[in-house]
Design the sequence.
């Protein structure tokens, strides 16, 4: 294994002629167009390429789970058909189940299907950056790694690369491995196989989980309808695994699957040596760019992407199953059900929540307390978890840039010049005029995988990741916050309330689990003290140690959640205090404004009264005196106006003079 220090571009890994290979998102289905009406008659319920109509299995949303949408408004659709794969596997005989589990798919198929959170995935895939194969988050690059694959779904990530033969015509291979009925009525060359024909061969064509049907009811119906016929055990197993590839692990936007996947199942005993987890991750990377903008459906194993997001930055409609701490893989511990209260949630709402997600709540090392012995894929693949790798999946080669996410290893992230990246990987979906061996033609790339890639060197002198974050924000200044709407205060409050409700629910569940663990631990200790048989005592002691470790982990998680809850409550109290202060400031501003308005009105009325009084004063002056004698007589109180003698008047009969001071004060 090589070591990897500063960022270097592996341009030498590309072979001659690779520059002409173009990346396309969807599998070419040229042979179906050539087949014309014959193929359409055989599989009439398949619509255009990438679409399913009629009773085809379609995506993983049932009619009950998919909310009604306005006409003309598209929405992302996941192409996986998990319900049928799960029920089909359970309905198989036990011998076939054991054989499939040995191939490396047992852990994955033990996980109960759950609801696919379409708005969450739609908002997440918008952040995919093709040049660095990473999600551009406000807090830095985030990439699903092989460690996530091994812990979450249990697929093997160490082993032989998933590469093989690519032929011009797969007619003879399909007849040999699956049966002649899959090529009947089709013109050669045959390069892809209709997925609907695989389920039709065993009597499950058109099987979909009904709106009100539970998983157990659906499984009962599938078990009753499953008809393996007189096929051999190997052919029945190949048909199921081929359907598993096309509808779950390596799903595309098409209703068909390239026949080169079937060639991997020629020797079922050797199928378990492949690194299926690495191939699944590489296949997902190759389809994320095409599903981001040009298509309403998305390929790849999207449930893995959904649970990876829930694990690293917890948000959305999910809970962990009660008493699920011992379930393996970790995906089996999650339960995601459609929530009618948020059935109309749009991708814009999730986008806003991602933009405002607290950076300190991102979980970089979510598997710190897990034991490798419980995860065979983790124990075997750990040497690859800190390596720069090339992920191979039948003609596609995608780069895993571990140097961008060393914080998942518990290290500080060094600064990296993101714009200087080259295009190491290459992906293509095309057919060839002649047979070829991709592994032999790209020998150095295959050797690079088998040697374990290049190990990332840790920079121990780093104190924090501030230099990286500064360069990161400068490089992606226009992509860190995708929501262009101004978040209203009410929506911010709802986000806080939702996070607080999730924390309280998780805290209650953990407290119940702690109580259960305490009771179990007390029971084990009591049985050990009362003197059980000596042969059972070591097992009891081991169980007590395991329970004590689980109890300690649960206590630590409870303390962590209580701290987060207190922080959220303090943040909400601060917000309420700021709201009250703003309301007081607004009230004081309104009082001052109303005082100024009232003052202006009073002054305006006073000026109007003065103007009217000034207009009436000259008229009163001209009419007060009839002649000059009246003016002269003003000095003699005994002379009336006109020169007449004023009679004596009694002061008792004189009316009192009006007091004008009170009126003036009232006017003022």
Sequence:
């Amino acid at each position: 294994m090589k070591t990897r220090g500063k960022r270097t571009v592996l341009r030498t890994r590309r072979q001659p002629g690779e520059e002409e290979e173009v990346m396309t998102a969807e599998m070419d289905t040229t042979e179906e167009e050539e087949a014309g009406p014959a193929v359409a008659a055989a599989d009439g319920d398949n619509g255009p390429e990438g679409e399913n109509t009629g009773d085809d299995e379609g995506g993983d949303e049932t009619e009950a789970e998919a909310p009604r949408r306005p006409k003309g408004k598209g929405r992302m659709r996941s192409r996986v058909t998990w319900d049928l794969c799960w029920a089909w596997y359970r309905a198989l005989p036990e011998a076939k189940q054991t054989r499939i589990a040995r191939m490396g798919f047992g852990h994955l198929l033990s996980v109960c299907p759950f609801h696919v959170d379409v708005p969450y995935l739609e908002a997440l895939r918008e952040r995919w950056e093709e040049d660095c194969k990473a999600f551009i988050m406000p807090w830095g690059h985030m990439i699903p790694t092989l460690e996530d694959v091994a812990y979450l779904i249990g697929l093997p990530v160490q082993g032989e690369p998933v590469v093989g033969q690519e032929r011009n015509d797969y007619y003879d291979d399909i007849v040999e491995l699956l049966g002649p009925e899959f090529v009947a009525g089709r013109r050669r060359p045959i390069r892809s196989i209709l997925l609907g024909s695989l389920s039709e061969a065993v009597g499950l064509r058109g099987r979909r989980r009904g709106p009100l049907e539970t998983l157990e009811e659906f499984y009962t119906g599938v078990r009753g309808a499953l008809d393996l016929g007189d096929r051999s055990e190997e052919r029945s197993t190949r048909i199921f695994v081929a359907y598993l590839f096309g509808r779950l692990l390596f799903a595309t936007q098409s209703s068909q699957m390239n026949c080169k996947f079937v060639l991997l199942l020629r020797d079922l005993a050797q199928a378990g040596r492949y690194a299926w987890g690495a191939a699944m991750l590489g296949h997902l990377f190759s389809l994320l760019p095409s599903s981001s903008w040009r298509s309403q459906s998305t390929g790849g194993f999207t449930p893995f992407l959904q649970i990876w997001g829930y694990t690293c930055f917890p948000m959305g409609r999910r809970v962990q199953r009660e008493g699920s701490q011992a379930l393996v893989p970790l995906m089996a511990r999650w339960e995601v059900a459609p929530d009618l209260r948020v059935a109309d949630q749009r991708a814009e709402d999730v986008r806003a929540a991602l933009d405002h997600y607290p950076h300190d709540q991102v979980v970089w090392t979510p598997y710190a307390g897990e034991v490798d012995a419980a995860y065979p894929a983790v124990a075997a693949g750990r040497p690859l978890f800190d390596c720069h790798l090339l992920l191979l999946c039948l003609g596609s080669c995608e780069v895993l840039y571990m140097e961008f996410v060393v914080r998942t290893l518990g290290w500080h992230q060094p600064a990296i010049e993101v714009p200087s990246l080259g295009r190491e990987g290459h992906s293509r979906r095309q057919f060839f005029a002649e047979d070829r061996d991709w592994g032999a033609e790209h020998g150095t790339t295959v050797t690079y995988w088998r040697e374990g890639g290049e190990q990332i060197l840790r920079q121990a002198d780093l104190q924090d990741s501030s230099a990286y974050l500064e360069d990161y924000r400068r490089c992606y200044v226009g992509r860190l916050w995708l929501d262009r709407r101004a978040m209203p205060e009410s929506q911010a409050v709802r986000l806080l309330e939702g996070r607080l409700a999730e924390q309280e629910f998780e805290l209650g569940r953990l407290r119940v689990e702690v109580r259960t663990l305490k009771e179990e631990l007390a029971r084990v200790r009591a049985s050990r003290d009362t003197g059980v048989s000596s042969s059972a005592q070591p097992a009891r002691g081991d169980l007590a140690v395991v329970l004590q470790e689980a109890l300690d982990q649960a206590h630590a998680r409870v303390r962590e959640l209580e701290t987060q809850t207190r922080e959220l409550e303090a943040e909400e109290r601060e917000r309420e205090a700021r709201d009250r202060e703003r309301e007081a400031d607004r009230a004081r501003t309104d009082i001052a404004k109303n005082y100024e308005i009232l003052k202006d009105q009073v002054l305006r009325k006073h000026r109007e009264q003065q103007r009217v009084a000034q207009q009436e004063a000259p008229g009163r002056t001209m009419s007060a005196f009839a002649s000059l004698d009246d003016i002269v007589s003003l000095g003699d109180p005994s002379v009336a106006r006109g020169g007449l003698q004023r009679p004596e008047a009694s002061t008792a009969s004189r009316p009192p003079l009006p007091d004008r001071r009170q009126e003036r004060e009232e006017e003022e």
Remarks:
- The first strand starts at residue 2 and ends at 4.
- Residues 82-451 form one domain.
